[in-house]
Amino acid sequence: MRRGSWKIRIFIGLAIVAFAFIQRCSNKEENPYTGRTQTINMSAEQEIAIGLQSAPEMAQQHGGLYPDERLQAFVDAVGRKLVQSSIARETPYQYEFHLLADDQTINAFALPGGQIFITYALFSQLNEAQLAGVLGHEIGHVIGRHSAERIAESSFWQTLTMGASVGGDMGGLVSGVGQNTLLKNGRGDELESDELGVLFMIQSHYNPNEMIEVMRILKAAAGPNRTPEFQSTHPDPENRIEKIKEAINKYKGQ
User: Fold this and answer.
1) What distance lies between CA 221 and its chain's CA centroid?
2) 78-98 residue pLDDT tens
3) Phi and psi of 18, rounded to 5°?
4) Rounded CA gap, 18 and 24, in Å?
5) pLDDT (tens digit, 9 = 90+) per residue, 176-228?
6) Cβ–Cβ under 8 Å, residues 83 and 89
């Protein structure tokens, strides 16, 4: 390739990289519910729309909804209690709680905008206070706008990777750095959600120490061959327990 062509490629690559950084800086905003400054490139209404659109597919992947209206009503009641007793009621999000039929996978997760799921496999091992801890944690993900933040970060690294690829052979390296950065941030999301979950439990008059029991249930379910913390998006349960204890001391009396 001619020298002039390389100069043009480098120039275009640098322009794309510069655009990525400018866009990232312009998308900084303070989360009014957590006080944390985040990179967000969508509105709350867009988060809600994404969650509502994705919810049916997510339910289908876990065998659909659990076919017991009584248990679903119980999950709804605990979820509503947490929302009405906390700052969650002041947010624009549409909180809906879904009990999934999956009786093999121990899991709970939240989509952007307030769609929250828990599998029957996990639900069946919890008492009411522990269920409140799990749902409070997932509400924390919604309020923390963690999915929206990850989407914005992913967009930034995709643009950066494209610029590095156009300008030379650094695309793979940049992509790898981006994946590691997102992994690190994911652990922070979990710890922030744990702390918010503890606060919501206390505000709803649940015993926050039951959140510690949830961590022990998750640790036992993972078994002795669980993925080491440095390879996982979730902090080790033992580390989470220590942070939960700190949160309990921080918020007790509220």
Assistant:
1) 20
2) 999 999 999 999 999 999 999
3) -60, -40
4) 10
5) 433 333 334 467 889 999 999 999 999 999 999 999 999 998 888 877 666 54
6) yes
Please give the DSSP secondary-structure letter assigned to residue 65.
B
The amino acid occupying position 219 is K
3-class DSSP assignment, residue 37: strand
Cβ neighbours of 78 (radius 10 Å): 21
Residue among 34, 57, 140 at smallest CA distance from 95: 140
Q: Please, are residues 152 and 112 in contact by the beta-carbon 8 Å criterion?
A: no
Domain spans, the chain: 9-251
Q: What angle do CA 183, 39, 21 make, to 5 degrees?
A: 95
Find residue 115's DSSP bridge partners.
96
Taking alpha carbons only, the member of 26, 9, 20 closest to residue 159 is 20
Q: Structure pTM? A: 0.77
- Residue pair 196/144 in contact by the 8 Å Cβ criterion: yes
Q: Which residue type, as a one-letter code, is found at position 142?
A: V
